[in-house]
Design goal:
Helices cover 82% and strands 0% of the residues. It is built from three helices and no strands.
Length: 117
């Protein structure tokens, strides 16, 4: 590693000096709307990374949020199935009572209760 640094020392110094000059020029030059060029460069360099991170964060939060909603939907589905089973048993019970009353009525039995409202 030391031999590589020594071998390309002049090239590395040139790259560092040119990079430093570009930073100084970027700081000195003002672009549109009186904004320094270095600020434009920094925003241009950081924006794609920030968009990527926000996309990952938003996607993860959305996934977890949807998962929580699915858990709540599963609980509600279970509750509704129990309610439906109870309603079905009440309906079948009412149907049996109706069949008995119809059979009694057809046999000519008249009780004290009226079927009219």
């Amino acid at each position: 590693m030391d031999s590589i640094l020594h071998r390309y020392r002049n090239l590395m110094v040139l790259v560092i000096v040119v990079g430093f000059q570009l930073v100084l020029v970027g700081y000195q030059v003002r672009g549109k709307e009186d904004m320094r060029l270095i600020r434009v460069w920094a925003v241009t360099a950081i924006t794609p990374l920030a968009r990527l991170l926000e996309g990952v964060r938003g996607g993860g939060a959305g996934f977890l949020n949807d998962y929580v909603f699915l858990v709540k939907a599963r609980d509600e589905n279970h509750r509704l199935k129990e309610e439906l089973a109870g309603s079905n048993s009440r309906i079948s019970n009412c149907a049996r009572i109706l069949v008995r009353r119809t059979a009694l009525r057809s046999a000519g039995f008249r009780g004290t209760h009226s079927f009219k409202k």
